[in-house]
Automatic annotation (TrEMBL):
Taxonomic lineage: Bacteria, Bacillati, Actinomycetota, Actinomycetes, Kitasatosporales
Keywords annotated in UniProt: Cytoplasm, DNA-binding, NAD, Repressor, Transcription, Transcription regulation
Positions of region (Disordered): 222-265
HAMAP family: Rex
Subunit structure: Homodimer.
The gene coding this protein: rex
Positions of NAD(+) binding: G100, I101, G102, N103, L104, G105
Subcellular locations according to the entry: Cytoplasm
Protein name: Redox-sensing transcriptional repressor Rex
Residue stretches of biased makeup (Basic and acidic residues): 222-231
Length: 265
């Protein structure tokens, strides 16, 4: 199996819009669930519902992959899993290092979902000498002094930062200096990187704040409906995400860059 280093994702060079790229993991998650249930084919409507995406958008997205489905039959689930995995570069092996093996770093190291998607945790790195040699998820923690040699030896192109905010930029600089070109940043800080390096940020507290905003709007809407009196018709049912600015609005990863990204479970 080829390793990830020196392979830029084909998606960009083939001109697939970033918004489509951001939805591909959602389709893949839904398709993988269907595949696990041995479902052979799926309609665009069913798949769109499972992925939480509008079906016209799904058909447009799949047209970029050259996948149009068969009228009356739908899409071949296994073939789409293969096609999307290939498009996302998941048919390659991507060695990943996690830097900062505290609560979060250890939890990520223990998460089985990376390996099944082609992301192999090549090393766990921490600055605390007391951590060196400790086994986390069956992997011995290495000292941060070894960061550069670990990156070189393993051909690592993706680094995950789970250090305190104050250490994140320095860790990022060292990863980039060693040749890492993609960073997944969990620390609550904005990282500066040179051109050609991609940063995705995950911040659950931001997601919660967005939910809080929508909750507040829903509460305000309910209050104003109450003030207008009971004779007003109730708004159309919208399920659990109904009301103004349902929480699904911001669902899914955004375009590439240093903005919040939510990892597919
Ligand atoms: N994005 C999110 O949703 C989210 C959720 C929880 C925590 N966090 C953030 O993740 C980070 C880690 O949180 P935690 O609870 O695991 O903290 P923690 O204190 O348990 O772990 C941090 C680890 O980083 C190590 N470290 C410190 N400086 C380092 C350096 N220069 N190089 C390598 N390792 C270094 C420490 O030794 C420690 O083991 C924090 O920045 C926290 O704010 C983000």
């Amino acid at each position: 199996m080829a390793t990830g280093r020196n392979h830029r994702p084909a998606t960009r060079s083939r001109g697939i819009p970033e918004a489509t790229v951001a939805r591909l993991p959602l389709y893949l998650r839904a398709l993988t669930a269907l595949s696990e249930r041995s479902v052979p084919t799926v309609s665009s409507e069913e798949l769109a519902g499972a992925a939480g995406v509008n079906s016209a958008k799904l058909r447009k997205d799949f047209s970029y992959l050259g996948s149009y489905g068969t009228r009356g039959v739908g899409y071949d689930v296994e073939y789409l899993v293969y096609q999307i995995s290939r498009e996302l570069g998941l048919t390659q092996d991507w060695p990943v290092v996690i830097v900062g093996i505290g609560n979060l770093g250890a939890a990520l190291a223990n998460y089985g979902g990376f390996a099944s998607r082609g992301f192999r945790v090549a090393a766990l790195i921490d600055a605390d000498p007391k951590m060196t040699g400790k086994q986390v998820a069956g992997i011995g923690v290495r000292h941060v002094d070894e960061l550069e040699s670990i990156v070189h030896t393993n051909g690592v192109s993706i680094g995950v930062i789970t250090t305190p905010a104050g250490a994140a930029q320095q860790v990022c600089d060292r990863l980039v200096g060693a040749g890492v070109t993609s960073i997944l940043n969990f620390s609550p800080t904005v990282l500066s990187v040179p051109e050609g390096v991609d940063v995705r940020k995950v911040d659950l507290s931001i997601e919660l704040q967005i939910l809080a905003f929508h909750e507040q709007r829903k509460a305000a809407d309910e209050l104003s409906r109450g003030l207008r009196g009971p004779e007003r018709p109730a708004p159309a049912a919208g399920g659990t995400g109904g009301g103004a600015g349902g929480a699904r609005r911001g669902e899914g990863p955004g375009p590439d860059g240093d903005i919040p990204a939510v990892m597919p479970a």
